Amino acid sequence: MNITFRLETPDDYYVVEEMTREAFWQFWEPDRVICDEHFLVSKLRSCPELLPELNIVAEADEKIAGHIIFTRCHIEDSAGKIHEALTFGPLTVSPEFQCKGIGKALMRHSFNEARRLGFRAVIIYGNPDYYPRFGFKRAAEFGITAKDGSVFDALMVYPLFEYALDNISGKNSIHAVYESLTQEETLEFDKRFPYKEPHIQTPIEVLLKRLDSAAAKAIKAKKFVTLDFLKSQSEGEIASLAGMSAEAVETVRATMKEYGFRWGAE
What is the CATH number of the domain that holds 35? Predict the structure, then answer.
């Protein structure tokens, strides 16, 4: 399969948004009625931190097969100095083309472009057991935290060249657009697409009843409402909970796979 890359154009907007809607329809946030990633793509196009040079579509078989969009973010160190970096998301692969290397190819191509533009690193919030396969490392390894100072495995960093983050650490900030979308706005935006039945999330109880009491207690303490929410937790984070055995972790992995979720180090 031949994959080519080009910049997104206005003629692509609807196709990219609909593709993103399809790819992200299953979501894990328990307070959402529908996904908002397609609305986010629309909002990011007018975001002042957008990198137009890194708003890229991938094509395969003469169709748009994937999309990636970048904005500037920054790291503020303890002295108040600002160090510029990049973040991306959503990274979308059409359901028709998933598991064919499109996402990896998009990252490789866009990271090369980002390097050419002079950026030093990419910082994301993403699946903590998936992105390390492509070179991402836990932000904590670089002394980088979220804006509120918290550290968790889903916050990850990809240095674009050797020693890119030497002597740089601090709090990462992204543009407010990533955290300001409301469900009311999203539902209004979604009216431009064909109706789609809302995704029914899987209750966490399907997992709890398969675990021994100690492991079930550990999972309950995290206050997960649905199985979907586990996608934000790495295998290491779950395995480190008091009461979680190796057998319990395997039960989590098997249950997630049964319900169609990619989870854990594979």
Answer: 3.40.630.30
Burial class (CB within 10 angstroms; exposed 0-12, middle 13-18, buried 19+) of 173 = middle
Among all chains, which residue has been given the structure tokens 């968790």?
152
> Could you tell me if residue 197 is inside a domain?
no
Residue 190 falls inside a structural domain: no
* Maximum alpha-carbon separation in the chain: 55
pLDDT digits (tens, 9 = 90+) for 76-126: 999 999 999 999 999 999 999 998 999 999 999 999 999 999 999 999 999
Query: CA-CA-CA-CA torsion for 42, 9, 95, 237, nearest 10 degrees?
Result: -50
- 152 and 248 share a domain? no
User: Rounded to two decimals, what is the model's pTM?
Assistant: 0.91
**ω into residue 90 within 30 of 0, thus cis?**
yes
Tens of pLDDT along 240-251? 999 999 999 999
- Tokens read off for 102: 């499109």
Report which of 34, 30, 3, 4 is spatially closest to residue 20, judged by C-alpha positions: 34
8 A C-beta contact, residue 1 and residue 58: no
184-203 pLDDT, tens per residue? Answer: 999 999 999 999 988 888 89
